[in-house]
């Protein structure tokens, strides 16, 4: 039987075991938040875990591609949401998959889906497992068992078309593997979500992931030239074309389908020349109102900055990018072909014209950018450390039009802040950054940090999250800009999704997955 | 009963009756093509037309919104494809709708769909009627009758959000009406398809129309913030958000649905500040190979020209933009905020670096641009004049990746040229321009001009078109980049569309249109 859990990868939390905070660091970071216990929750040892017994046996012909090993099952039980980490820390692995499969070809996936359909087994496609919305956790009680379908054995760049600047890449490839394989050609996919190291192409496609760019090519969607998807009724392959007006886009049905309509196995992705010219700067604002106006001017200027992140005062302070209660706007321009200083200067001027201030020496340009970037990559590890101290630490994100941007920012902060206080009995932090900006609106990204009560953290967070979702729904701001829906966002998604579209999607699901094996509970019931 | 046929609009051909070529002009233009008859086909008078009797009567409560008047039925029988014009000129109006409806509200559309479902009447949504792919022609024999649902009574800009730069616009608004209503706000939708004057927002959305921009915002799809669609099972309304990762995009299902899934009634569209800075230039190339390489460099440069049209030698000669058998590249840059001369200079330099030549005095810059632009807008009238002389004149368009761009160009010209010669017995012209370019490939647009045999033109064209579609299919170039599928592209579309996606789309259709009343035969059987 196959088995693939790497001891370098944390089975219960974010990223690599070597990067995980020590107990002492957990205590130190926990001391910043009044009211937390004095010691971190211990990390359960794999050998101490008790998993429900596996209810199914794999098909004989493919048994060598399946694993029932405890590390594999434990590591594939959850994604990496706060609520996943807390449950794992408690040793609660009730939704563990009965089996983990590691197929090496489309043919094997076809066989697994056929077998699952015949035996009423749920199949949950799994890439890097970095979902923060319950996207890879099987909660079905209608199936005889569940298989986590780990695609990471299919991880190669299969073909590079240097003329059209595109590559055929397998779904199980992690971000760094893709970039390493493209580098010799001088190309980059230039899609850098926060999870870059620990997420795969297939996951990005299935969840409409958001990447590095703050403008223009924000989502993986726009990088897709064509896709191959194994559905239970056959393989869907769209043609490689730069654009098409031939009916509704097939790719756009599978983008964001979160494993509910098929298993994405490979795609042709648009590449870019590696950027040579880069420049960045930061601008500070005394008030968030001014900052929002400045960012709107930048977003509507047609200057298309590669980076345009607005950190509100709380976020700026937390990441070390800002001081004195100011909001900080980090701007970046880049190009493979042309110097970008002039464009950056135009962007900075625009920000200054809207009330931005040049930052004091030592806080300008790359230093703020760098301090923010390293905080950004460390954040999930800090989150796990705080979770072990029974803090509540989680993020949620949205997008709205500019006419309501400040209202959404202020209302969410006020209402979620009030919910935190009511639910935890103490004030917490609700910080915000704008991760992506569009001519018609920003994508605000909120971080909640509060002291939880040990043993009660999950219920507390679920209540806070419900309040956040209700607030976003009332404001008609999307339930997710790039984290996807999964199981955790279903209530908000169901309210947002137009009912006729829901009917169409249900019908499409029934047509493609007649035995209802694919990721049950995601998007469609 | 309502009636809306304007005597200013040609019922049989393109555009305005006042712009139609005189008989003498038809003869003059026909003289350019050897082997045509010496006199044009007469244009049938409306009073001489014989239409099949109307088989159905409208619902009583809405009778005042329906017309059985001959000019309305005749004017709504076809779109404006070459094959439509030829049939209209012959007085062949066999597929005339039984009734034409002119609803003024969504409620009326709901009532009409309910009535149609109950009585098994086909409903064909109709905007400007400029389809060149048989998109508005009802060929069903399974229905008790057909209604052309003319949406042009719903033609207002309902709301403008100046902060987010977006407007809520009714589907029946024609291009100029939209621009006129946005002008006082300083905004433009900046979507200028060739049919701009004679097509509507709803038509653009339903067909994924291609507009003015050669790069970035090429299709109307990317301008859509949200949509309202009346389906037989309810109204679908997506939220106004700049971007969302919440499941597959609802809007992307209805974009390109060509009236088969619902009736688009209004949408929030992203606007832009009106451009102030504009600059254009043209560059010539001795060979098309060189020109294609230069255009690829431009498309992959990240400079995003607003205009980037490559005219092959035949196209350049025909439109008066080029001479001496050279290919001509027309480049344009524009901005509402920043001078664009420097960017244009970079674009021109790039073209020169790839073998382009500065054009002689008097053929540079705006003169070539202007001569091409006016030819572009006159083209459909010329087409109709030539059609009256029994010439075969039609266009088709596609998109492919750069690695195959020159091959597609050369192969299509060779094979369609050979088909023309074999079918008509004489050589014709197969010219090409690239209308839009992407980092991974161009959208080539072909024009066929050949001498037909009077009475046989249609069969000849259908054979040529079949050869073209077979060629594109073999080369895996899309059956349409922005003309849509309609009924004419169904064979090519059915070969291109992945079968699982077809199954999903059929299921979605059944869910949304359970009585199969909406535009039968389009996209789905």
Short description:
The structure is a homodimer of 525-residue chains. Chain A has helices at residues 23-30, 70-75, 82-89, 106-119, 175-182, 201-207, 250-254, 288-299, 313-319, 341-353, 365-388, 405-424, 457-474, 490-496, 499-512; strands at 66-67, 99-101, 121-126, 145-150, 157-161, 166-170, 187-188, 224-231, 234-237, 263-270, 272-273, 277-285, 307-311, 327-335, 357-358, 391-397, 429-438, 441-451.
What attributes does this structure have?
homodimer, 525 residues, alpha+beta, Uridine Diphospho-n-acetylenolpyruvylglucosamine Reductase, domain 2, Uridine Diphospho-n-acetylenolpyruvylglucosamine Reductase, domain 3, seven-stranded antiparallel beta sheet, five-stranded antiparallel beta sheet, 18 strands, globular
Name the CATH superfamily assignment of the domain at 17-150 in chain A. Uridine Diphospho-n-acetylenolpyruvylglucosamine Reductase, domain 2
Uncertain runs of chain A: none
Supply the CATH architecture of the domain at 17-150 in chain A. Answer: 2-Layer Sandwich
Strand order of the largest sheet of chain A: 15-12-14-13-17-18-16
Whole-angstrom Rg of chain A:
23 Å
The oligomerization state is homodimer
The number of strands of chain A is: 18
**Roughly what percent helix of chain A?**
25-40%
Strand content of chain A: 15-25%
Indicate the CATH class of the domain at 17-150 in chain A: Alpha Beta
CA-based shape of chain A: globular
Which two chains form the greatest contact, residue counts included?
Answer: A-B, 95 and 95 residues
What value does the average pLDDT of chain A take? 95
Note the total helix count of chain A.
Answer: 15
Strand pairing plus helix content of chain A: what structural class? alpha+beta
Biggest sheet descriptor of chain A: 7 strands, antiparallel
